[in-house]
Amino acid sequence: TGDASQDGKPSYGTVGVQLSWLKNMQFAGMYVADKDGFYRDAGFDKVNLISGGSSATSAEAAVAGGKALVGVSSPLITAPAIVNEGAGFKTIGALYQVNPFAIVSAASKPIRSVSDLKGKKIGVSDSNTLVWKAFLKANKLSEKDVTTVPFSDTSMLTTGQVDGYIGYTTTGAAALTASGFKATELLMADAGLPMVGETLIASQDAIDSHRAELKAFLKATIQGWRKALSDKDQAVNLTINDYGKDQQYSKQSMDITYDREKAIIETSETKANGLLTISKDLQSGTVKTLTYAGISVTPSKLFDTSLIDEVISENPELLK
Amino acid sequence: MTHHPRLDSEETVGSDVLDRGDEADRGVDGIRIVHLDKVFAAGRGQEFQAIRDVNLAAPRGAFVSLIGPSGCGKSTVLRILAGLDRATSGSVMVNGERVEPGHATAGMGIAFQDPALLPWRSVERNIALPLEIQGHKNDAAVRDLIALVGLAGFERSRPGQLSGGMRQRASIARALSVNPRFLLLDEPFGALDDMTRRHLNLELQRIWMQRATTTLMVTHGIAEAVLLSDYVAVMSAHPGHVVTMIPIDIPRPRTVQTMSTDAFHAYVDRLSGMLFSVSGEDRDGKPASDSGRAVQP
Amino acid sequence: MTHHPRLDSEETVGSDVLDRGDEADRGVDGIRIVHLDKVFAAGRGQEFQAIRDVNLAAPRGAFVSLIGPSGCGKSTVLRILAGLDRATSGSVMVNGERVEPGHATAGMGIAFQDPALLPWRSVERNIALPLEIQGHKNDAAVRDLIALVGLAGFERSRPGQLSGGMRQRASIARALSVNPRFLLLDEPFGALDDMTRRHLNLELQRIWMQRATTTLMVTHGIAEAVLLSDYVAVMSAHPGHVVTMIPIDIPRPRTVQTMSTDAFHAYVDRLSGMLFSVSGEDRDGKPASDSGRAVQP
Amino acid sequence: MNPGLRFVVRRVCNMLIAVVVVVLLWQVVLDAFDVNQMIGKRPAQVWTYLMGHPDAAEHRAMVFGNLGITLRDAGIGYVAGLGFAFLLAVLFCLFPIAEHIVMPTAMVLRSIPLVVMTPLITLIMGIGQRSVTTLVIIVVFLPALANILFGLRNVPTASSDLIRVYGGGPWILLMKVSLPGAVPSLMASAKVSIPSAVVGAMIAEWLSTGNGLGGSISKAVATFSYAQMWASAIVIALVTMIVYSCVTILDDIVRPRFVVAS
Amino acid sequence: MLLLIGVWWGFTYSSVSTSSFPTPVAVVRSIIADGWGFYGRNTAGTLARAGWGYVWGNCIAFMLAALVLVVPKLEELVSQIGVLTNCLPITAIGPLVMVIFGSRVSAIALSAMLVFFTTLVGALTGLKSASRSQLDLIVVYGGNAWTQVRKVRILAALPAIMTALQVAIPGAILGAIVGEYLGGIDTGIGVALNAAQRQVQPDRVWALSLVTGIISLLGYALVGVIGRLLTPWAKEINR
Ligand SMILES: Nc1ncnc2c1ncn2[C@@H]1O[C@H](COP(=O)(O)OP(=O)(O)OP(=O)(O)O)[C@@H](O)[C@H]1O
Ligand SMILES: Nc1ncnc2c1ncn2[C@@H]1O[C@H](COP(=O)(O)OP(=O)(O)OP(=O)(O)O)[C@@H](O)[C@H]1O
Ligand SMILES: [Mg+2]
Ligand SMILES: [Mg+2]
Q1: Which parts of the sequence are annotated with region: Disordered (chains B, C) (predicted)?
Q2: pLDDT over threshold 50, residue B286
Q3: What pTM, to 2 d.p., does this model score?
Q4: Is the peptide bond between D3 and the residue preceding it cis, with omega within 30 degrees of 0?
């Protein structure tokens, strides 16, 4: 719990946030919250946005090790951590309301439905093994119906080594199309796998003893995302020219990504309940999906929505 | 090539050896070194002239010794003759063939100043190496050579298990293994006791007489040079230069007894005097000062 | 230790040197080698006895030369004296201290049979190495030694840029750099021409007389041994054994002139005879046969 | 006890000591850095996973099954990579010009991350054993090549002079001098290449076939199965260490035949 | 080198869609288009990490090699630890390194790890290459094992060590890139590579790889030249 400074405003000092990937469009709301001072206003001296990368479990590791207050992750990692290790994490909010995973395939040889999958060769990177397993299970496909190979680069699709691969809808087909390769995708969410994505996780310890801090963070993050969703130029600009500057992202593909993201962040549910919230349906849907992947977990073990609910109810302006 | 090398010697070279009837096939073109210069890069952009304008001619089949103060360039001349180093200028011919750096002269045998045995090969296999390279094996010859240099019983020893003198003897045997028509020896007997040395001297003479091998031997032993040679060339230092070449007119075969003749002693004294005069001016035996280091821009 | 080493020599050793009034501090315990044996493992489980029951005693401050046929074990004795090899049996004392393998005898200088210069160091720094190891620097001394061995002008050359004889001279200078109280020399002048050799012989005598250095020199030059030594030890081969030790009773300082005295010649002839008799039975100068290889179970 | 047996016993003891120290180090480092127990499994936890757990037999079957695949991949790659490096080094010795063509290529190949290379390789070789072997070769190849080449080139001038004066060409120099002289370097490459081959095989499995320990380890990390990850890692590490020890023993036997102190 | 480019050209020209494997022209164009601002910043980051990794890896390797020299019994153990650091896949140790060293230093740690073993083995082999007589020389003048190390062994080992240091260069760079690839870092070739891959920009991916290759090549050549300058005697007597 932060100290109250002289003017009565709480001060939480500097905290770290472990992102799930490089600084790209996925975290635009946080950039806005940082740039426009929402985090500062909430009582943080500084919020360090720590880039992620190809190391899949960095968020859990950072949160467990105390290096980050909040991590951005996915139930597909958090749930096994809880089940396998009895880890004290909880998912306290979710940005994506729709399962972002999709099977990306060439438009010339499209995979548009589950029935198209038979006999195809699909590239699956290790971090997506679970969701693929769940997908097969949910659609009653056996390992024999489709060939699975490790996936390293989209060139495997463009050179025809695979017929499709599992990627994020926000970057997958869009980026490919932007690069001149016509691609289509089959959203897993449309194939019986509801799930939240880009979840915010915190350790049970933080939830118990740093509740105010977490709530302040959630509030500022929601503010950031609200601004980002209403001001496309700022969001895209911050990504390209500031936070992700060294990657020299192309504006065209960031624009596409923004639009796709917006669609899965702003759903009818979040319009009603507030950004980052997770409805009961979505919770049980996520848990069902996890069950397909062989991970049995209950919603109450995986989620703790009490903080986000409190934040929304305490700050009704976040719903307007 | 008709150009005749200029020799800074008092004597002229050639006819006396050709008179020897039993060696009719020997020409006048055994060794022919003309205006030989060698400049080494001495680091930091500096240069060091090791030998300057070295000239030397000897008939085919002759035994020539090269004596001179330490560091005067004897090994340098020998290495150029062997085709191992490139002369800065000048030319070298052996038995009628021009020596090209990097090309081996056919029928050459050589013993370096340092024995250069391959540490993983036994004595026997070290001696057989030249034959192996040239593709003919001759175990009997190798065995004879081992006995000749007194290494019988050590055929299978590795060089690391030999004494210094034994290594040197192995290296001599190796030089002889190819039945050379042209033999280069760089202080071959330096590490041997007098007894062994004398024995090998006489053996060397025997082999040389049998095979009419054109031989150049670098040595520090004046007596040894006189005992074995048709000609003894004397070099001065800094930069190295052949100042004279003296024919040794003592009948062959020479024996241990030869060494007590007056003629022999006269040659030895004369060569000692010469070596003394090229070596330095100091009566007390101060050595050639190596300090006059020629540094060229 | 009161036990007196048995010497297989005709002479007994000691008193004549002690008589020399100017060297009153010299004791009788300069070098004391008692019943020394060395057996090498010769591979494939075989053994080779290099020396057997070597005994040798010389007073402190004496100059002892060791001569013998190539491969008789001279270097082996020297390396054991230097504490570099472990004797199979027997004991060795130097200047009153017991030599322990792996421990350096204080105040020792040594020149190996092979110069063993460090290729990355200049001549100057190679010579300064022992001083550096012992933590005292003495640039002036190093400079003097370089001049003494005639390497002035080559201070900064690396060993690879020197001739064979020059390398050997650098190695001698290095042995002298520590102002040794005990000096071991293994054929130190083998690669040098007579002139340089004689000069260095006399310089060595001067230094030895100044500093009362107990010295053991392995050499193949009988004249050199007589010129420099108080005692000359003669070794026979297979296995190596000191057969006799002859005191040289010629007044000091000896000079080039000494070498033409009758006394000198008498010693040289006597030693040659001895060396001859240990070297082999064959009149033609056949060397010591190395074939009697002692293989022990 | 006969000397051969004593030698083996001593080496085995050394090996055991190394294992004990590594296990201690493992425990100590994790404790010292206070690594979370979920991620940094301690020796005891790995032991439980493999031996004490109710599903231990299943775990063992999985880990050792994958180990077999990885060892096969690494072994093939090791032999091929080392052989290839050796052949090229020999080629460079005979035709130095070849070095100027191949060396830069090898360098570029070595420094491009395999994640980028893999799609190209799988495209050419197809997904399977051939591309795994190719990837292992890329990892093993350069250090081995550099070491062998260094050994082959490190010929005393005196020895090469000797060959030259007797009319021996590059081939004879190579056979009579360079190769025997390079034995220590060859053995050093053989040693360095062992861990390289193993890690190369695992990377290749991860990126290309998804089989073996390489595949299972990264899948385990992705699904937060750290006990499995650690168990796999430790097993492969131990096996590699044992193989390395064996080659070291071989080295100790072979080397003295070629380097004789003079 | 030209040959290599030729093969590349031929390959990309003939067989494959250029959208996945670009031609050399496309790669060069991409380099020019991205410009100094992009490559300067990213390579500077990677180079700094690789440089530190190189320094650390080598320092640790040398320290351990020195330890082995003083206590020869440790050789087996030390090299086994080297083997250990070198036989674990980055996917396994990556998370661990991130946890232990923190994400920012992890690239340096990985780079150091890849450098460490090569140098260790090179140093251990080299330190044994001093000749018997050179070591004897030190003993007779009262030097101890440590004097032997300082005056003889290190210098005798220098040629072998320089080779190891040369081979370690691509290792260091690769380690840094993979470290960046794993995460926690905002600027660097590894990050840019990862981003470009995700954004499906094969031109840039290959351009970055090429730049990496060239940097390694330069570093390799540089160390080679330094090695030759440091060991002028190596081509002289070479006993
Ligand atoms: N590689 C080299 N670089 C520079 N200088 C060299 C090189 N090799 C030889 N020299 C110099 O050339 C001169 C002649 O050397 P060389 O070996 O021919 O002498 P040498 O007459 O054989 O002497 P020694 O009788 O001592 O063997 C010496 O002064 C030596 O320093
Ligand atoms: N490491 C070794 N292993 C086996 N035998 C050895 C070893 N070192 C020396 N010997 C043998 O010991 C004998 C004596 O060698 P040593 O070097 O002492 O001879 P030396 O008297 O110095 O001869 P030289 O005058 O030729 O130098 C030789 O026969 C040699 O073969
Ligand atoms: Mg010479
Ligand atoms: Mg000797």
Answers
A1: 1-21
A2: no
A3: 0.81
A4: no
